[in-house]
């Protein structure tokens, strides 16, 4: 996000300070790496009509924006939720482009004090779009200031300290907030209520990813055939960011080992080289499944024991491998630990022992956030 902002020279840009987009060696990581940062700016669809997938969100957002345009007023504030890499930043940019207004970008972690937010809000021009990424990570004091600003287009600037402090109201021109979050459950209700339009982005199905990959291949000048694109789409975990990244790795392979043409064979060999299997699992994912099935008879086994078995930190297993494995139904989180589901045994090509715990285990309630268990129509 911030790299793209810099390239476009937006007037106010706040770079996220928490390292949440830091580079990662995992080719199937849904987070943004440094390498992605550069390429993503070029691959983002610019208008709603060019945005493949998420048809409901696209139609609803299109209606909200068109109505606002006809009224000549800024639209309601927009909240976009969903896992990383599905297009929240892209849609925020599209909102501004469709309204033909500038976009300001900042993020929750960058707004730690109400004063930080006041500075951004007071510099907005009429109709501008303010993109607040990771909005659930804003400080409480900034959140309270945002309620007022979103509802009444006003901020109270506190002058002075202690008993002598006074609040000076500052009128703001009407503007639109586009908030993005991977954890909508963490947003306080009063903040959520200020958004007139809320959309949840879901994982993409393979057909949508195929469309996205064809478009990206065109923009990158990569020759790619349908079978090659399909193969990449099927391994992309329902996530456009991962799809675009895998396409670049297959293109690299094709350029070094062939004529640069992305076809089925190139996709299969290149993605095997990068340890991404036919359904998008990587080495860590498979290590977790192998340990669970081969060493612990399918579980249930505690997270820390499982982590030791795969030689990783418990936190890494829980936050990096587990969300996708749970979402796709390979493992189940139970009150007594992690258990392999029938899909895990099938994927490893092992027959589950009769004693394997399959049906009698219930998932733990309240485990989910926007990044874990969901649906992937791949
Ligand atoms: N529907 C789509 N069509 C084409 N490309 C897409 C689509 N959605 C996302 N992308 C591409 O995927 C990449 C990641 O998208 P984006 O940065 O908008 O995701 P995000 O949801 O904001 O992620 P994060 O939560 O990490 O900020 C970009 O290169 C973008 O162009």
From TrEMBL:
It holds the Pfam family AAA_lid_4. Its EC number is 3.6.4.-. GO terms for molecular function: helicase activity. DNA binds at residues 333, 338. It comes from the Bacteria. It is an enzyme of class 3 (hydrolase). Residues 74-205 form the AAA+ ATPase domain. Belongs to the RuvB family. Homohexamer. Forms an RuvA(8)-RuvB(12)-Holliday junction (HJ) complex. HJ DNA is sandwiched between 2 RuvA tetramers; dsDNA enters through RuvA and exits via RuvB. An RuvB hexamer assembles on each DNA strand where it exits the tetramer. Each RuvB hexamer is contacted by two RuvA subunits (via domain III) on 2 adjacent RuvB subunits; this complex drives branch migration. In the full resolvosome a probable DNA-RuvA(4)-RuvB(12)-RuvC(2) complex forms which resolves the HJ. This is Holliday junction branch migration complex subunit RuvB. It comes from Ornithinibacter aureus.
